[in-house]
Amino acid sequence: MTTTTIDRSTFKGIVCGSRHLTHEAFQNDVRRAAAGFTGMGVEPGDCVGIFMRNDIPFLTASQAANYVGAYAVPINWHLVGEELTYILNDCGAKVLVIHADLWRAIHEAIPESVKCLVVETHEDVGNAFGLDPQACKVPEGLTNWSQWLQGQQPITGPAQAGLSSMLYTSGTTGHPKGVRRFALDEEKAALMRDFRSRVYGCAPGARCVVPGPLYHSAPNGYSMQASRISDLLVIVPRFDAESLLQLVEEYRLTAGMLVPIMFIRMLKLADDVRNRCDLSSLEFIIHAAAPCPADVKRRMIEWFGPVIYEFYGSTESGAVVACNSAQALSKPGSVGKPVPEASVRILDEDGNVLPANAIGEIYSRFPMNDFTYNGRPEARAEIERDGHITSGDMGYMDEDDFLFIADRVKDMVISGGVNIYPAEIEAVLHNYPGIKDCAVFGVPDEEFGEAVMAVLEVESEDSISLDEVRVYLREHLAGFKVPRTIETGKDLPREDSGKIFKRRLRDKYWQLAGRKI
């Protein structure tokens, strides 16, 4: 770590809160960890679990696992008990790198066969989450990551080629599945680096920021590349709208990966706060992971300039569609056109390719980025048609080959035989003054099978009239799309990315009705 005063606008390396690690120091730690993993019996093809919040050792352990030919397995640190046990057993993890406070909460779920390296939860992380400082210390008798790392001699041999992280799907139905990518040879690995540089913006020379959780596939892939080849990577323990703008100015950031809810929260900042920071260094802000309302995209481009980019894909497919600012303005609501490396099809229930503007299930193929599910090749076959795979999204391609997302298959509401797409309704609600966020979903209805319901997160109860919200919706949507029930709520359940856990809101209504979810 650097201890002298630094110039944040020119520093090159890895940053998290108060800590600044040069690229040379970071790579030295990677090689130390790689030697240590080898000494713990980690071999090519093995797995190293990572159960941490955003932090520098998260990336150190990930890079080190790949260095020795092993898969890094980032695990959502919100998981509890049997959920963690299942993933560690399913991937056969030999080692688990875990924050100290998380170890205290979940250590009983860690299989005895898994060796733990416990990372002291740094105050940069602890303060962001309001953690008890005592809980952040490594318990006595456990292997302290920092001490273990310093006791290793850096590995001297060349890095093994081609492996990356193995991300687990969310597991909304059944157990989560590990997306195990095939190793790439040197030529294909170089092509993938160039692809990510072009589509993600984490290119050589870029000064990048990642405020999203590193256990998610997009922030993980972005940060893994940026930490290797970009000038700077700033890891944000926990997103805060005003603080992110300050980081842009202080570090002269040029690039970053965000999600739409972050845009919405930044746009809701007071004008004097929004205009306080110099954002002129920005060149490439990429977003993904959730639909971005067209009006939000337009306002961000007006504010940041034509530096807003988007990609569409999934943990399984990778980025298969991309969109720049000019395309977003000319095709409002579109996520872009297929990238040259991939093909995209819209299929009906029988597997037939649908014509332009017809809604169906989205299938894609990215040969260079192919995968299987860990130990479950049959599950891979279940989502494939003619070499193309689906992640369960519905959408359509227009006559110019621009892709528009309707919604998830599982989120679509079928009311009286009519398909209703909650994402369309949510996009309209996001534009209503006083609404901070919203979730639209289907609830049981005796007459129509399902009815549309909306839960609104509002700035204050007094700032919103639900009757006026209904009038507004009727002005922008067909009557059958207007939610029959609208409620307000506070502190709605969220993922680290900021997205609302819609299923947690929806499930209770189906359970009360005694219906299968």
What's the Cα radius of gyration? 23 Å
For CATH, the homologous superfamily of the largest domain is named as ANL, N-terminal domain
Major sheet = 14 strands, mixed
- How many separate helices? 17
Overall mean pLDDT: 90
Q: What fraction strand?
A: 25-35%
Terminal Cα span = 50 Å
CATH topology of the largest domain: Rossmann fold
User: Can you tell me the CATH architecture of the largest domain?
Assistant: 3-Layer(aba) Sandwich
**Into which percent range does the helicity of residues fall?**
25-40%
Q: Report the top-level CATH class of the largest domain.
A: Alpha Beta
Instruction: Please identify the structural class as seen in this structure.
Output: alpha/beta
Total domain modules: 3
Question: What attributes characterize this protein structure?
Answer:
about 525 residues; alpha/beta; Rossmann fold; GMP Synthetase, Chain A, domain 3; 14-stranded mixed β-sheet; 4-stranded parallel β-sheet; about 25% strand
Could you characterize the architecture of this molecule?
By secondary structure, this protein is α/β, with parallel strands linked by helices. The protein has 17 helices and 26 strands. The strands form 5 sheets. Strands 1, 2, 9, 10, 11, 12, 13, 14, 15, 16, 17, 19, 20 and 21 form a 14-stranded mixed β-sheet that branches. A 4-stranded parallel β-sheet has the order 4-3-5-6. A 3-stranded antiparallel β-sheet has the order 7-8-18. Strand 19 and strand 20 (388-397) form a beta hairpin. Helix 1 crosses helix 2 and helix 10 crosses helix 12. The termini are far apart.
